[in-house]
Amino acid sequence: MAVPKKHLDIGTFYKYYSGEKIAPVLTIFIGGNHEASNYLQELPYGGWVAPNIYYLGYAGVVNINGIRIGGVSGIYKGHDYLKGRFEFSPYNESTKRSVYHIRQIDVFRLKQLTPKVDILLSHDWPRGVTNFGNKNQLIRFKPAFREEIEENKLGSPPCEDLLKALRPPYWFSAHLHCKFSAVISHEGGESTKFLALDKCLPKRRFLQVLDLPTSDASRRIELNYDLEWLTILHLTNHLISVRGSNGYMPGEGSSERFNFTPSEEEKKAVLERFQNNLQIPRNFSRISEPYNSAAGIAMDLIDQPKAFLNPQTTEFCDRLNIDDPLQLAMLMTGHSLNTSTYIDQSPLDVSNNSDRNEDELVLDEDSSSNGDDQAEGGLLLPRAPLASILPKPKWRHDSSTDTSTMDDSSLSTSNRSVLSLPTPQKQDSNLSDNFTIDELHLSSPKVSAVRECVIAQPFDEKKIDCTEEKPPMKKFKRRNQAIYAKEDSD
User: How many domains does the chain have?
Assistant: First the structure.
C-alpha cells in the first residue's frame, strides 16, 4: 500500500514502549485525533501504554494523592456521536476516522459523577468557552475561527454539557493548535479555569506549569482507580453498543433506570470485588514487538495490524464483571479473537533510568502490595453478578438507520455479554483562586505542590507539568516536525 512520506517518520514513542526510555514522571493522557487508534482501542477503560505513561481510556477517572482527574478522549462529530463502538483494525477510509470520534455513552457515564472532579481533560474545547476569554485576540490569531465562533459552532457540544454538569475547577484541552485561557463562572459562585495549549513545536506555547494541593504532599505518588467511576462502569455495562447505528441512553421518564450515580451500597459491592484495594496495578505488558530502528521500515511489508485483545483490559473486565467493547465488536461480526503471540510482561521499573533525577517519581518496585488483590493462582476473580442492583439489559437503537445484520437478542446477557476469556498470567478542594487571563496567557496559581504530575499527550509530546522543584528547562528538539506542518483535516 502507498504510504505518504510524512507517515514514515516513526517518531520517538517506540522508545518508551520498548523501555529504551522511561517517562521521568507519571504521565496521564487522553486520546485525540493523532494517536495510534488501534493501540488505544485495546484499552477502552484505560491502562499503561508504556512504563509510567497511563491512558484514561475512552473516558475515565483516576485519583492521584487526593486529586481526582477525569478525561474523555476523541473529537466530536455529530454523525457518529450516537453510534456504538463498531470499529476495529484493519480500518477502512471511514472507520480510521470514526474510531476516534467521541460517543454518547462516555459523556453519559461522566455525567453521573458526584462530587465534581478536580481536573477534566478533553481534546476538543467545550463549545462556547471562547465567550469567557479574550475572544478578539483569539480571532486575530486564528481568523478562520471567526465564523464558527459567531455561530457558536466552535468546540464540542457534549463537552459543553459536561462543563455545565460537572463544573470542574480546572479543564484542559488541545486540538485547535493555539493557546487560549478562560474563566467560566457558574451559578453559586463556582468557576472553571480553562486552558488550551498549542502544538508542541519550537516557539509555540505548548507548556503550562500548575501547582495543585494534595491531601498529603509528603506521600509517594500513587495512582488509584476512582471507586465511583468503577461503579458507574459496572452499572452501565448493559448500555454498551457495538452497532453502527444510532442508539440512545435512558432518560428521565423512562421505564428503566436512567440515573446511575451509585449508592453507597453499590460502591461497597464494587469495592469488595477489588478486595478493598483500588491501587492501579502496574501490569503493563508489550504485546507487540517494539520497533527496531536499526532494521528500519520494510516498505513492502507495511500493512495495518490486526486488532488484539490486551491482557490489561481482560484483567480489568474480569475483575469488574464488564465487557470489552473491542472484544464484542469482533465477536458480533464473526472475527476471531486475536491474542498476541508476543507478550513481554517485564515489570514496570524506572529505577535504572539514567536520565532520572533523584527527586523524581519512581514507581514502587515492590509488587507485594498488589498480590493481595489477586486470586490464588491467577488474576481471575469470581464474577458473581450484583443481580440485586443491576438494571435489566435493554438495547436502544433506531431501526430505520440500522445498517447492521446483527440480531439484537444476541447482543446482551445479564451483566457480562457473550464470552469471557481467561486472563493471561502475570510473569513475574480548596483550589487556588489566583488564576488570571492576560492576552492568551494563563498565570500559574500559587498553591502548594502536587510534587510530580504530568498531564500529557505523549504521542504529540504535549505536556502540562506540575512539579515541586522544577528542573532546568532542556533545549526542545522536534524530530517529526514535518508531520504537524499542516492544520488538521478532521
Answer: 1
